[in-house]
C-alpha cells in the first residue's frame, strides 16, 4: 500500500504523515536505514527526544533560548545533554575509529614480532657458526664475504 496516511498502528495510533527516507544513524557511511515512528513531544510514548536545530548563530548563544523553549512546551522534560552536529558525528564514528586503531596496533605488533623472529633466527644461526667464521678469517676471508655468506644462508631459512 502506497498511501498509509489515516491508517492506524497498534489500533490506537493514527498515521498523520510520512517522512522521507532519512539516515537512521548519524554515521554518513552507514547504509542502514531503519523505520522510525515520530510521536508528539508531549506523548507518553516519547521517552527520548533528540532535537536537531539549524541556526546561523553560535550554539553557545542559542542554548539558553533552546532550554526556555523546551521548558515552555514540555515542563516535565529534562535536558540531559546538548551537542553540536559535528560533536554527534564524531561520537557516531568513534567505534569505527577505535576499531581502526586496534587493527593498526595489532598489525604493528605482528610486524615487530616478525622482525624480531627473523633477527633471532639469524642471530642463532650466526652464533652456531662462530667457529666456522673464525676459521674462514684465518684463511683470509674478509668480513664482507662472511657477512654475505651468513645473509645468503639465513635468507633461505627465513624465506
Could you explain how this protein is built, in words?
With 159 residues, the protein is mainly α. The chain has a domain at 94-158. The protein is built from five helices and two strands, in the order ββααααα. It has helices at residues 59-73, 85-92, 94-128, 130-138, 143-158; strands spanning 8-9, 13-14. A two-stranded antiparallel ribbon has the order 1-2. β1 and β2 form a beta hairpin. α3 packs across α5. The two termini are 65 Å apart. The model has no long low-confidence stretch (mean pLDDT 82). Keywords: Membrane, Transmembrane, Transmembrane helix. This is Protein containing DUF214, permase predicted. It comes from mine drainage metagenome. The chain crosses the membrane at residues 98-122.
Q: What is the end-to-end distance? A: 65 Å
Biggest sheet record: 2 strands, antiparallel
Largest sheet, spatial ordering of strands = 1-2
Pairing-aware structural class of the strands and helices?
mainly alpha
The outline comes out as elongated
- Tally the helices: 5
Order of helices and strands: EEHHHHH
Strand content: under 5%
Which range best describes the helical content: under 10%, 10-25%, 25-40%, 40-55%, 55-70% or over 70%?
Answer: 40-55%
Strands, total number: 2
> Uncertain runs with pLDDT below 50, 5 residues or more?
none
Report the average pLDDT across residues.
82
User: How much is the radius of gyration in Å?
Assistant: 34 Å
Q: In summary, what is this structure?
A:
Keywords: Membrane, Transmembrane, Transmembrane helix. The chain crosses the membrane at residues 98-122. With 159 residues, this protein is mainly alpha-helical.
Amino acid at each position: 500500500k502506497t498511501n498509509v496516511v489515516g491508517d492506524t498502528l497498534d489500533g490506537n495510533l493514527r498515521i498523520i504523515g510520512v517522512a522521507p527516507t532519512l539516515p537512521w544513524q548519524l554515521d554518513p557511511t552507514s547504509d542502514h536505514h531503519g523505520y522510525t515512528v515520530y510521536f508528539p513531544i508531549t506523548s507518553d510514548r516519547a521517552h527520548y527526544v533528540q532535537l536537531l536545530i539549524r541556526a546561523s548563530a553560535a550554539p553557545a548563544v542559542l542554548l539558553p533560548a533552546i532550554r526556555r523553549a523546551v521548558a515552555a512546551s514540555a515542563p516535565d522534560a529534562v535536558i540531559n545533554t546538548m551537542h553540536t552536529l559535528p560533536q554527534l558525528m564524531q561520537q557516531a564514528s568513534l567505534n569505527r575509529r577505535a576499531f581502526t586503531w586496534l587493527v593498526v596496533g595489532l598489525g604493528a605488533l605482528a610486524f615487530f614480532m616478525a622482525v624480531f623472529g627473523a633477527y633471532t633466527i639469524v642471530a642463532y644461526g650466526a652464533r652456531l657458526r662462530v667457529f666456522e667464521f673464525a676459521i674462514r678469517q684465518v684463511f683470509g676471508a674478509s668480513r664482507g664475504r662472511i657477512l654475505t655468506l651468513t645473509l645468503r644462508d639465513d635468507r633461505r631459512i627465513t624465506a
